# Entry
Amino acid sequence: MEYVSPEGLRLDGRRPKEVRQLKCELAVLHRADGSAYLEMGNTKVLATVYGPHEVSQRSQSLHDRALVHCEYSMATFSTGERRRRPKGDRRSVELSLVIRQSMEAAILTHLLPRTQIDIYVQVLQADGGTRAACINAATLALADAGVPMRDLVASCAAGYLNGTPLLDLNYVEDSAGGPDLTVALLPKAEKVTLLQMDSKLPLDTFEAVLGLAMDGCKAIAAHMRQALLEHTRKQAVVRGPVRL
Amino acid sequence: MLQPEGPAPSLDEAAAKLAEAQAILQSSTASLPLVCLGDAIDLGADAEGGVMKGHGTMMAGEAQLQATVCGLVERVNKLVSVRALKGRYTAQVGDVVVGRVTEVAQKRWKMDVNGKQDAALLLASVNLPGGVQRRRTNVDELNMRELYQENDLISAEVQQINQGDGAVALHTRSAKYGKLQGGQLVTVAPYLIKRLKQHFVALAAPLDVGIILGCNGYVWIGSKDLVDAGGRDEDEGMEAAGPSGQVDLQLRERMCRVANAVRALAALGLPVHPPAIVEVCNLSGLLRVEIKDMLGPEFLAQVAYREADRRQAEGDAQPMDH
# Structure
């Protein structure tokens, strides 16, 4: 199958080095400490953060840093085929772990000893790149909750099909069976907090694909930063000066 | 703008009006020193003397500060900090808080105060009813539940904060603190409550209720007795309830009006403080808005317009204070 047309366009009309349209909304749930809704093209994700709060199971409490707990789930209606998804399947356990680890790399956990931070990420619509979308949404939700972090964590996938490195794969490209590389990045320090790849790739091509994914992360980080600044501005202005 | 009569607008219209009113509030773009997390903080020309990192910042390289939360940059001489506009309650010594007992533990009550961890109220730092001296025996440790049980609401003051892990200790060593009954609790975001001279406030006549503005965002609305001098009676007679445990209907309605005023302010993200609460209550009375309608978009829009007008009148240019 042809994934890149001779004109250099992909199946959904993008150029190879183009990310999908991003849309984020912050503080969508008022009962949570922080929440964010993120769309990357047709992939739609909702992230919710509760805490930092008292550790619910005292034996798990850490005396020198915060306990980060993450739960990933997919809505029954998130894919083409509607089906119930059991909670503890291998895929979601692995993804919870991946999201937790890359967020833990950014959260300044040593500032919040004996506390717990819960991150719940739910995929509402899956169209490839859910891993990346979940990490981005979790970052935004944590930032909304006011949890101190080193930097935003931005994540993006990249692949290699028809001899072309492609940025931000959608579902069709993802299921083509080619290599799929997900990267999460602390853009300021250019530190990689997550790097995952299925299937194989020659070393020199790998570097090109990795570079592309990192560029994608930076573009996404810039977009998220704008959204956060705008949100902060709204909050600050509504509060306004206090008269006593 | 005030239209108590006439056909009621549809819900969509009202929502649109509310959005418009909020946009007016937000459009007052005083240039605020806002940063996003991860941004380098611009220290301007006078950074030569060196800077100190405060809350919400960290060092990134030499003499370069980076924000770790999204919010407002604040500066006191060399100390630079970033204040997040949202987040859990961070205790300060002397704060009045309202908390809920989550656990009765060894010689202490664990209290939920909406903070990063539960606060502790030590048995040694409470006043016994009647002001009697406590005898330190095993028996009164066993009888702690007679004083405060799980799920009781208590007003208290922050006594101490552990520097190491941020654990908070509370005390109720004053007649005004203690168990809260015969009223209602409204929870708002803690950043909406500013530290005031008085957190126990009696609202004047037509309202005639007492409120405790807990710095942690828990607002208690009860009878006026809990504020009046002398505080509670010795046998915990502070509650509005009569001997039968009933609060009379008029008082309940007044309390509900005040509670909804607090909720309305919080829904709009406006600071919750006594003059604002009174103003919202008066506005609802003026427009003859029923208590149950005070959280509808029509009334919220009116509150937002009122606030926007007020800010415009004040000249809008003032920087935020706290």
